[in-house]
Amino acid sequence: MWVVKIGGSLYDSPQLKMWLNKIAAAGVPVIIVPGGGPFADQVRVAQQRWGVDDKAAHQMALCAMNQFGLLITGIEPQLSSASKIPELIKQVESGRSVVWLPAAEDPDVEQSWRVTSDSLALWLADKVGAEGLLLVKSAALTTLRSELLDAAFDEYRQGWGGKVRLVQRDAIHEWPSLIL
Fold first, then answer.
1. Closest CA to 138 of 171, 109, 105
2. Low-confidence ranges of the chain (pLDDT < 50)
3. Percent of residues, the chain, with pLDDT higher than 70
4. What is the Cα–Cα distance from 62 to 117, expressed in whole angstroms?
5. Contact at 8 Å (CB) between 91 and 122?
6. 6 forms bridges with which residues in the sheet?
7. 2-174: which CATH architecture?
């Protein structure tokens, strides 16, 4: 089993639909973790404007991931969604790719902007016993790692023995060999 994090930065990219179509058609079921994209950007704006604490902003950011996840399932109807880990596993074991909607799960992670959807994807990969995590990013992979991944990613990585692969959104032609 693999977890595939689709970065919210793909929101405005034609590659988003291509990735979703390829994943749905590949016959290799995965759990998709949505980024927050423009929905999470609005959480940052709201936190700055209203001064809400990190705990509230974290919960709002999980809802932002849910919004992007719901958009993903709207774009590609062959993908289903689930909030709870047992349901995610059940769907993958039945041969379906599924989008994680994290707000109802309330992951046991640090509630700050150090932990974004990247670390949440790693947390989930650990919880479901995934073989690996594929992170799909819009930024060029020549970008500094500290600019590609959130501040807590390496800490979460230390406690998990699975594979981590980072790909640029244009690597869609390599699917599904990226996880095989």
1. 171
2. none
3. 97
4. 8
5. no
6. 34, 136
7. 3-Layer(aba) Sandwich (3.40)
